[in-house]
């Protein structure tokens, strides 16, 4: 027993590091704040940054291992390592974002809480991507949710932020409550709490199909809320608009990635029929009599269509990006629907690409909001002339978000559509392509404001500090380079679709 | 009438599932109809407890293992943590807007 726990701990180092860094960050901020307010401006973020960097090192060290630890509660496999890398990468970038965000820096009283909660949020997302037990999935989901409720309302002196966190917790608690009820039904149907046992019970015994359908719809409520899929998306625009822009950016990338990791692992492990023979290499079959991928296909079409259509009417750029992130969740769901390793690899590729382009777009929003104090699309008039570098960067990020070559976004979409066509899901691919066209309209609307409209009379050129420009380039270069040289990313994604315990 | 008597004196799985189903429906009903944020949160607690009844009942009657009861204990802690954070947020909202009516707190919208 002790040996098993010690052995498990040695595979659990990334999470342990984050817990240690969480305590350390909180302690440092407490020690320093007792002697003066402004101290800890460097020490607290550095401790947080160091913690995430060390945990990322341990994550990369786990590459190639595939085993289950803590009596099957958590697994370490290429799939979870991939998502942990994406999550840790975005967490590091967000810590840098926070250093430049005037919203975060103005609320310096709570700096210790902010950075330690960021670490806790990262920990929750790690666990979401690695949990292989229904109980562990609920706990990881709740850890992620509870910390993000607090962080969404972090600038609590602002009404918007408070409102965002209230709406977030009401929708979030409802969705996780529904998911919990679904889990309880699934437990009753199968008598198992780990997802491998669930699969065994479902493929072996006689299970009431209606009850299974109700249980999985209730569980999709929980997953759908985390990835902001329609019809569980109502919180997304409000929270994205009201929360500090650093947190918005983190939620839009890392939280979605963790939600997808949990959704894919749950469905791929527990709801497939592994006894079906004669399938092409890299394809799986859904359970007999329960084609859950059709359910996800409907969700995907609704999500991307609604996200794109509503985004057209938005005037606040953060809100526009919120609807665009809903639409992107729809695109990524297409990769899950096809039930093939190829589709899964396409989702993984898309996440890496999405990390750079979406964080980049949010970085531009943050930099401009720092200077002008506004997130309205009207305040972007003539930005291309007031600050050419930022203007050009935004063009590239938006072209990439639309999915046009030669940017990384094109590669992401290309692999998704290829996977769809391979599996004969032509109608879904057509819907996805049409949606990309719609999305071009609202992205270009922002770009038109930036380049074809004259700036206000009193608006001079905007100057940004060197570190901010470097951070922008760190996000901009991969967005371009991954559009031209993407072989290593594709190889890595193909190698990362392997999950523990699934052939 | 022995069967009727059995049904009354020896509660089985169905009884617990019915109670939990009623509790779940009441929770959803409260969330949809109540406008007071605290009442909405109480509706969410009802849903969590409905799930808890399910877990314990299934654990007792169908699986025969303690897994479900362990999950129920975790869920109780979870509900407490969630309530603590939710009430802190509601308190903050009250100081900011002087109301806890979720319909009136509506600065952010399309």
Question: Could you explain the architecture of this structure?
Answer:
The complex is a heterodimer of chains A (503) and B (110). Chain A is an all-alpha fold. Chain A has a domain at 304-503. In chain A, 74% of the residues lie in helices and 1% in strands. Chain A has helices at residues 2-10, 13-33, 43-61, 78-100, 102-106, 111-130, 134-152, 159-190, 195-204, 209-226, 235-242, 245-270, 292-311, 317-337, 341-372, 383-386, 388-402, 408-422, 426-451, 466-484, 487-495; strands at residues 67-69, 74-76. Chain A has a two-stranded antiparallel ribbon with strand order 1-2. In chain A, helix 14 (317-337) runs antiparallel to helix 15. The mean pLDDT of chain A is 91. Chain B has 110 residues and is mainly alpha-helical. Chain B has a single domain (2-97), classed as Helix Hairpins (Orthogonal Bundle). Helices cover 79% and strands 0% of the residues of chain B. Chain B has four helices and no strands. In chain B, helix 2 (13-33) runs antiparallel to helix 3. The N and C termini of chain B lie far apart (62 Å). The mean pLDDT of chain B is 90. Chain A binds chain B through residues 134-135, 138-139, 142, 146, 149-150, 153, 156, 159-160, 162-167, 169-170, 173-174, 177-178, 180-181, 183-185, 187-188, 191-193, 237-238, 241-242, 310, 313-314, 319, and chain B through 20, 24, 27, 31, 37, 40-41, 44, 47-48, 50-52, 54-55, 57-58, 62-63, 65, 67-68, 70-71, 74-75, 78, 81-82, 85-86, 89-90, 92-93, 96-97, 102, 105-110.
């Amino acid at each position: 027993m002790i040996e098993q726990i010690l052995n498990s701990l040695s595979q659990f180092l990334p999470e342990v590091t984050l817990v240690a860094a969480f305590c350390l960050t909180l302690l440092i901020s407490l020690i320093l704040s007792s002697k003066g307010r402004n101290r800890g401006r460097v020490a607290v973020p550095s401790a947080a940054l160091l913690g995430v960097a060390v945990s990322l090192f341990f994550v990369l060290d786990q590459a190639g291992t595939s085993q289950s630890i803590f009596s099957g509660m958590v697994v370490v496999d290429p799939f979870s390592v991939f998502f942990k890398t994406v999550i840790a990468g975005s967490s590091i970038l967000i810590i840098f974002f926070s250093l430049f965000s005037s919203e975060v820096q103005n609320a310096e009283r709570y700096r210790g809480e902010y950075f330690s909660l960021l670490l806790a949020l990262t920990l929750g997302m790690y666990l979401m991507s690695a949990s292989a037990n229904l109980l562990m999935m609920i706990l990881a989901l709740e850890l992620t949710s509870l910390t993000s409720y607090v962080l969404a309302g972090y600038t609590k002196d602002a009404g918007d932020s408070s409102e965002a966190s209230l709406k977030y917790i009401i929708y979030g608690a409802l969705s996780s409550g529904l998911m919990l009820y679904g889990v309880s039904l699934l437990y009753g149907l199968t008598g198992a709490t780990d997802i491998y046992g669930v699969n065994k019970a479902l493929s072996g015994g006689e299970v009431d199909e209606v009850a299974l359908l109700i249980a999985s719809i209730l569980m999709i409520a929980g997953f759908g809320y985390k990835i902001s899929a329609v019809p569980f998306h109502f919180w997304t625009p409000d929270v994205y608009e009201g929360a500090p822009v650093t947190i918005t950016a983190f939620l839009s990338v890392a939280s979605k990635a963790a939600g997808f990791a949990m959704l894919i692992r749950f469905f791929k492990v527990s709801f497939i029929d592994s006894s079906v023979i004669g399938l092409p290499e890299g394809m799986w079959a859904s359970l007999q009599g329960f084609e859950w991928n059709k359910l996800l296909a409907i969700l995907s079409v609704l999500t991307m269509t609604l996200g794109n259509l509503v985004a057209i009417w938005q005037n606040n750029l953060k809100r526009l990006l919120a609807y665009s992130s809903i639409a992107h969740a729809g695109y990524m769901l297409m990769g899950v629907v096809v039930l093939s390793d190829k589709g899964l690899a396409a989702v993984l590729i898309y996440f890496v690409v999405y990390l750079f382009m979406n964080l980049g777009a949010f970085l531009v929003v943050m930099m401009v909001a720092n200077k002008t104090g506004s997130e309205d699309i009207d305040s972007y008039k003539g930005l291309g002339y007031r600050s050419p570098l930022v203007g050009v960067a935004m063009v590239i990020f938006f072209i990439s978000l639309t999915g046009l070559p030669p940017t990384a976004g094109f590669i992401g979409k290309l692999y998704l559509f290829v996977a769809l066509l391979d599996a004969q899901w032509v109608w879904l691919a057509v819907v996805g392509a049409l949606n990309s066209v719609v999305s071009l309209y609202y992205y270009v609307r922002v770009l038109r404001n930036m380049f074809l409209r004259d700036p206000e009379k009193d608006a001079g050129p905007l100057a940004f500090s060197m570190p901010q420009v470097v951070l922008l380039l760190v996000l901009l270069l991969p967005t371009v380079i991954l559009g031209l040289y993407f072989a290593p990313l594709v190889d890595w994604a193909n190698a990362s679709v392997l999950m523990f315990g699934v052939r | 009438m022995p069967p009727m008597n059995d049904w009354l004196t020896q509660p089985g799985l169905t009884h617990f599932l019915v109670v939990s189903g009623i509790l779940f429906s009441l929770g959803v009903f409260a969330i949809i109809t109540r406008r007071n944020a605290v009442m909405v949160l109480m509706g969410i607690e009802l849903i969590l407890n409905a799930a808890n009844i399910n877990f314990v009942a299934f654990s007792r009657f169908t699986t025969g293992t303690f897994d479900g009861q362990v999950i129920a204990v975790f869920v109780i802690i979870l509900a407490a943590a969630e309530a603590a954070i939710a009430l802190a947020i509601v308190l903050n909202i009250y100081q900011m807007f002087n109301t806890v009516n979720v319909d009136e707190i509506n600065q952010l919208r399309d």
